[in-house]
Amino acid sequence: MIETAVNNAETGLSTADRHFVYRKVIERVAWTGMVVCVLITVSLLWVILGYVIYRGGAAFSWEFLTTLPQPAGEAGGGIANALIGSGFIVGLATLMAVPISLGAAIFVNEFPSGRLGASVRFLAEVLTGVPSIVVGLFGYALVVQPTGQFSGLSGAVAYAFIMVPIILISTQEALRLVPTDLREASLALGVPKWRTILWVVLPVSSRALLTGVLLAVARALGEAAPMLFTAFGNPFWNLDVRKPMATVPHLIYTYATGPYEDWHNKAWAASFVLVTVVLVTSLLARAALRNKSDD
Amino acid sequence: MKNEPHAMSRSSGRFFSTVLDVLIPPQAGSVRWGDRVFHFLARGTALFVIFLAILLAGDLLRGSWEAIRHFGPRFLIGTTWDPVTGEFGTLPPAVGTLIKSVLSLIIAVPISMGSAIFIAFYIPKSLRAFISYPIELLAGIPSIIFGLWGLFIMVPMIRVLQVWLKANFGWFPLFAGPAVYGVGVLAGGVILAIMITPIITAISRDILLSVPRTQIEAMLALGATKWEAIWKVALPYARTGLIGAVILGLGRSIGETMAVTMVGGNNFDLPTSLFDPVHSMASLIANEFAEATYNLYVSSLIYVGLVLFCITFLISLLAQLLIWRLSKGRIAILE
To answer: Is the ipTM of this complex over 0.85?
Structure first.
């Protein structure tokens, strides 16, 4: 009788042990699987960046930044007009997008408005999901069709449409972090609400506002799809917003899908430039935010 | 006082106020007048954002009106796209979009979920940024760069994979297609997976981080292993939001243009295997628009855009609703 009891106890213990080992194994397997996932996700960036630096760096030269494109087949030439065009169109888009999104964000965050404020914010979140090609069609139908020609202006309108929801959301997030005490202190001193917002709330969150704008700029700089049938591309210098303009991402598309080896190299070099500009802009954006929380 | 926010950005703030003082002198106007104008302006811009969304839908509708009147709903199930005879239908590109997106989810979801769980629960807080940062940067890389990389680096690799799959598993219908192009459903799905992985990972991570710590700690205190605590408590808690993150990834996948145009193969036939080149709705628009020479052609392409807009809008709406329900608006989605 005693023996059976011992046996039972032993087997009971060993099943518990076995179960424990089994659970530990599951834990290990899950852990390993997740490490593999993280390694894949993180390495993707380096694989893609690595190729862009390797292929683009080889084809890159300073002349590439300062000269106009050469006719197909001729060596040399650069993307100077596309660089200026991109900067110009994105700059114009920023000028259009910032007032709208800033005002809307102030309205959503600072004024009690019932449903309207929340709906605008929600709509902005949904609008970030509109495909960029559809935004291009929007620019085409809104500006190109009525005016009868492709233009830098239509490109800027398309980019602005992409930027508005991004700036709106990040601005509202920034305003939300401003302590209510500050607003109340200002109001208690007899300062009107509009001055409180402009003089107290916005300056306090100015760095975060800058972050939002820079993130939107970085996003717009890289978008090629909206430019296909708005700014359209242009092999020459042009600073007239009523005429077609070249942009860097669109130029990469043209060169990459073209038949010439020389074009492919230029596409890599232009990608190198574009990635550098976009990543530096988004790093700046994050740096602005980081300093703020470190101070 | 050093940690007060107004001390944080004192220099930039002072500059900002000085500019404002010059623009609007402190004595200007009476209190109420200023407030009312300001409220009016802010409300106006907010309404303008709604107006923009309506304008977008209206513009697409106006642009595609001729095709809508001409084809009606049969456009959606038409399988021919023939500019010569003026017969247009969008079923093959729609199917192409769907297959590539689903394929991208099949690849991206496990990897993103694994990464998100690991980052949220296994990596010490101090190291989290080092892992999260490259993933966020990846999400910020323009789609044209993925297209270029995909076309020149990935497609040749895919071609090798296709030849191997066809030689060894050619009896399987999905691998029965022509293994010569490289570009096609498989390449499109893979590049989309690469592009949506960082997005799904980043949002899922934020959602998982919003699971109350106490819930997991209670489970650990009862003797559960960490994985059991995550599997049985954290994931069910965060389920709605995680589904939202996946649907958001699906939306991005469906609307993605440049990369898919460059590696998707752009063919009008309905695909029968993973190797077939096929158009997506977005790549169809991107590819054909410059060649659209008459009104009905342009209008048909805008019609495709309208359909694409409706699909992505609904998906985006659903994703945001799911994510909002869980986070109560605390998680901002920017990418």
So the answer is: yes
